[in-house]
UniProtKB/TrEMBL annotation:
The lineage of its organism: Eukaryota, Metazoa, Chordata, Craniata, Vertebrata. This is Thiosulfate sulfurtransferase like domain containing 3. Residues 54-110 form the Rhodanese domain. InterPro entries: Rhodanese-like_dom (IPR001763), Rhodanese-like_dom_sf (IPR036873). It comes from Panthera tigris altaica. SUPFAM superfamilies: Rhodanese/Cell cycle control phosphatase (SSF52821). PANTHER family: THIOSULFATE SULFURTRANSFERASE RDL2, MITOCHONDRIAL-RELATED, THIOSULFATE SULFURTRANSFERASE_RHODANESE-LIKE DOMAIN-CONTAINING PROTEIN 3. Pfam families: Rhodanese (PF00581). It comes from the Eukaryota.
Amino acid sequence: MVLPGPLLGSARRAIFGSAQSVLWGLKSIKGSCHNFCTAVFKDVTYKELKSLLNSRQITLIDVRERWEIVEYGKIPGSVNIPLDEVGEALQMNPKDFKEKYNEVKPSKSDS
């Protein structure tokens, strides 16, 4: 799958540009990150991201809204959790997470 240039830039901003907001949201939940504050901020190219996803070295949480996934497409190998749901989603039990997001819940040890 090849993403058009503007979409790739948009996806990069949606995914990586929002990372600080996600972590801030997690930090504000009961005053801690619940062990999910292991993100490393780094720009990656499409090729690097594809390689990381294929090697299963990372769990990519795509924080775009559902309408953006429908309009622009899902990033293969990613888990879509809209930004305003991330903090709550990562605290769900695995069964509820699977039911709501149709994906296996990332573990606390996942990169």
